[in-house]
Q: What sequence folds into this?
C-alpha cells in the first residue's frame, strides 16, 4: 500500500490548512490519483489493522439498496452510527444531555466522551428494539444504496443503476457508459451525508474489469482505507458475475485531507513498513452479486500492524 502512504506524505508536506464543516480543521490537497493492480493482491491496509468485515457489511448494505443503520447495527457495524445519532440528538424528541458538536468535544473532553458513549449505546439499543424509532431516526435519507438501486425519475419510476451496469458490461463491454453516480442534486440535501465517493466508471479491456472512482471528499486516515478496499471488492464481485478477471482500481480524489486530530496517528502509520497484501476469497457457489452474504466473502494471509484509533469528525 505504498500508494496510500505516499498520499499521506504528500498531504503532510504540501497540504494547505483549511477549515471544514466539522470545525476540526484539516491539511488538504486538491486532485490526487492512486492506482491499484488488483491482480497483485487485495488492497487492504497493512500498516494498520482495518476491519474487513465492516467493509463487507457496508458494501452489501449499499448493494441491497438499504439506507437504514438498523441493518448495519444488527451486523455489529457502527461506522454510520454518528450520522443517525446526530439526527436524533438534534430533534425535539431528544431530552438527554447536550450533544452539540459531539465529535470534536469527545476528542478533547474525556468526561464528555463517557457521556457520549452512554447516549450512543442508548441510541443503538433503541434502534434495535423500537421499529418506529428506527424508522424515524435510523434512516439516513436517500444515500448510496438508494441512488445505486432506485434512482428516482421524473415520472415516478426508479432506475436500478447497478443492474443496468452489469447488463451493460455483459452485453456491450466496450461501451464508455458503464457509470454509476451517487450524486443526485435533487436529493442531496435530504441525505444525512452527501456522497463522498460520488461517481464511478467501469472499463473492460483484455478480459479484465477496471474501475475508476471519483471521490469529492476524502478523509484520508479513517475513510480512504475503507474506500479503497470497498471498491476493490466491488470490482471483484462485478467481475465474477460478468466472467471477467480483475484489472485496476483507480482512485481519484478531489479534496483529500487529513484532519488535525489525526496528524499523530498518520505519523505513527508512516513509521511502519507495509506487509504483503492478503488474498480475497469469494464463495464459489455464489455468482450473482445480489446473492452474496457477509460469510461468503473472506480474506486469507492478512497480517497487519496493530489498529490505530482516531476520532471521527461528524
A:
Amino acid at each position: 500500500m505504498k500508494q496510500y502512504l505516499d498520499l499521506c506524505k504528500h498531504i503532510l508536506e504540501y497540504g494547505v490548512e483549511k477549515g471544514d464543516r466539522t470545525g476540526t480543521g484539516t491539511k488538504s490537497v486538491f486532485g490526487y490519483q492512486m492506482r491499484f493492480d488488483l491482480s497483485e493482491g487485495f488492497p487492504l491496509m497493512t500498516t494498520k489493522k482495518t476491519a474487513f468485515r465492516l467493509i463487507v457489511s457496508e458494501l452489501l448494505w449499499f448493494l441491497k439498496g438499504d439506507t437504514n443503520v438498523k441493518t448495519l447495527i444488527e451486523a455489529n457495524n457502527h461506522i454510520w452510527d454518528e450520522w443517525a445519532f446526530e439526527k436524533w440528538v438534534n430533534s425535539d424528541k431528544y431530552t438527554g444531555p447536550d450533544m452539540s458538536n459531539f465529535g470534536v468535544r469527545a476528542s478533547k473532553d474525556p468526561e464528555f466522551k463517557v457521556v457520549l458513549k452512554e447516549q450512543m449505546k442508548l441510541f443503538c439499543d433503541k434502534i434495535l428494539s423500537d421499529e418506529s424509532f428506527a424508522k424515524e431516526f435510523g434512516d439516513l435519507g436517500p444515500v448510496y444504496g438508494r441512488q445505486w438501486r432506485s434512482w428516482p425519475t421524473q415520472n415516478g419510476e426508479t432506475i436500478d443503476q447497478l443492474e443496468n451496469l452489469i447488463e451493460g458490461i455483459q452485453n456491450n463491454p466496450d461501451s464508455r457508459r458503464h457509470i454509476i453516480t451517487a450524486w443526485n442534486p435533487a436529493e442531496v440535501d435530504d441525505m444525512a451525508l452527501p456522497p463522498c465517493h460520488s461517481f464511478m466508471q467501469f472499463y473492460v479491456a483484455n478480459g479484465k474489469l477496471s474501475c475508476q472512482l471519483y471521490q469529492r471528499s476524502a478523509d484520508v486516515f479513517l475513510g480512504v482505507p475503507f474506500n479503497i478496499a470497498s471498491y476493490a471488492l466491488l470490482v471483484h464481485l462485478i467481475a465474477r458475475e460478468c466472467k471477467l478477471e480483475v484489472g485496476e482500481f483507480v482512485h481519484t480524489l478531489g479534496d483529500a485531507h487529513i484532519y488535525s486530530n489525526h496528524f499523530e496517528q498518520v505519523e505513527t502509520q508512516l513509521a511502519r513498513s507495509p506487509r504483503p497484501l492478503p488474498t480475497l476469497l469469494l464463495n464459489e457457489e455464489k455468482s450473482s452479486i445480489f446473492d452474496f452474504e457477509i460469510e461468503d466473502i473472506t480474506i486469507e494471509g492478512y497480517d497487519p500492524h496493530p489498529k490505530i484509533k482516531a476520532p471521527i469528525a461528524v
